[in-house]
Design a protein that fits this description.
heterodimer, A: alpha+beta, 7-stranded mixed sheet, 5-stranded antiparallel sheet, 15 helices, about 55% helix, about 15% strand, elongated, B: alpha/beta, 5 strands
Amino acid sequence: MSSPSFASTSSEYGIGSTIGSHRHASMWQSFIHGRKHVTIRIGCAFLAVAIGILATSFISTVETPLKNATPLFGLVSIAFCSFAGLFSMRTARVLRRVEDELLRFSEARNLSEVHNIATTPRRIVADDPICDGWNRLLDLALANVSSETLHRTIAPLDREAVTLARAMRALPMAWVITDNDARIRFISPVALGMLGLADGSSYEHLHLTEVLGITKSQIAQDAVRTTDPANHSNDETTLDQKNESELVQAANDLEQVLGAIRMVTLRRELVVNGSTTKLRIARTRLGGRGGDGAGLAWVIQDVTQQQLATEARDQFLMTATHEFRTPLTNLQAYAEALSHQETLDVEHQKEFCNIIYTEANRLGRLVDHLLTVSQLEAGSIVINQHELDLLPLLEQILEQNRPQAEHKQIILKSVLSAKLPTVNGDRDKLQAAILNLVGNAIKYSNNGGDVTVKCDVEEHWIRIDVTDQGDGIPINEQERVFDKFFRGQKAVQSSEPGNGLGLAFSREIARLHQGDILLQSIPGQGSTFTMRLPISGQSRSGI
Amino acid sequence: MPTNSCNAGTDNASDRRQPTVLIVEDDAVFRRVISFTVSRAGFKVEHATNGIEGYDRFMVGDIDFIVTDLQMPRSSGIEMLERISQQTTVPRVPTILCTAKGLELDTEKIVQHFGLVTVLRKPFSPRHLTEWICNALHMTKETLHV
């Protein structure tokens, strides 16, 4: 029997000459092949042949008027045999097709596992009941496992998509995928945070260009804000020009990001949660197949810290250059004064020589300091750590500073425990670091004040406090006093020489010993610099 | 006796008063050597250590030339020049700005804006400074006489 999809499915496998009309095939089957079992059919064919041959042999041996027709009987026998043979061959051929198809399918399935190509066994078209049996079997199998088969072919795609989606979400970078009008479709968690959209509100209706402030209206608002009457300066024309150029810039940016150029990068400043972030935006066009999936992929980088670091480096270099120029200028000027003033008296000569000597020393110290700080930052300084008793070191430092303190009528007090645990440290470098703290305290104390050096144990730390009764450090300067080359306003105004490197150096040394330096200062009352160093062993002092 | 070729104190009639140079510089060591060289060239020297002091001294009067540093505590050289330029009733005085800044400073713009004689970058020779002062004052005097 033919199935309903007998001639219409694309996965049919025809056997050329055997294709006839359905009706004709049915008649033929009902007439000749009432039995469907192949073996019985072939057996019956050969039985009919055997009976035919026996009959012709019997007739030819009996004395009959047909005896003369023996050759004709031979021919009839041969015809019977040929017919039976052809019939068997036809059946065997259909069977071979079924075998071929099974073989092909099993090979294709092996391949499909490697190359992810979907494959199914094909139907066989022939007017043979064997084909019907095969096709029915196939229909049954496909009906039973159709859903399973579908899953099997799509699963590798799903796996890939899920893995990629997970990777994209887990990547620590801000990406956004939008449509061609920059409407947000997908956005990474990092981008949500960076653009201030992480408050749970829906972002699907938002345009990324609006979020980034690349819109004409946004720039117009910026322009209005800048020209706010409260901020009016005398230079209105400059402001107007600036706004105009910003508007033009925004229009250009908008045109560019939504334009046809494949890759666009630009920089924007964005105020998120009250702080300004500097963003570097790169957008790429996504080409979809036939417009499907087309859009824009955006990668946004926060370059605020990077820019701050660059600015800090530039500032450092500028300050360093300035600091070097000052003693150099003096050296050159005094050397010239000495050599070109023929009638210079001895007193002046002596004075100028002294100044040259002092300035040369100043330059030398500056070079040393700068080199040390740079090396510390680069991590190329080796700290020779060994067990160190701080008490003798502190006493030595106090002795070193005593003449300087006496000169300013400052009382140098020390509150040292009789017993202190040891630290693992570099003696020379720690001494220089603490010397800086004590030296600063004396330098910036008013005449007649007190400077106290206190050393004690606090949990796992040794704590060295250097307290002065100077003018204190203004709150806005407190964080910056450890910056290289930073000198507080009062320090600059004072006549005390300094290059703003001492505290930077001391803190780097403390940190290199896994410690730190902290500052507590109340303007008008004085400052306390606290150095903390980790304890390494038991005390040897005072035993 | 001054040894410099530019001799401001003796180049004219004795009734003319000695030109006064106001030196505004926060670094005492450098101020000392500039004062020394300029006074040796025959000028009278007045000092100030920042822009505010410099402005106050200038407004007192009798200043013929200003030599000012750029970066100074409390008030910079530029701030001082701004304040002076706002005083329309006070006649302008030739001025030289000294700076330890490098190429980041647009000297040409500053010279034009304040009508400066020049901007000298540190380190510079004090002798060259006195030459600049002499040249500028001669030119100014000649112009005034015309």
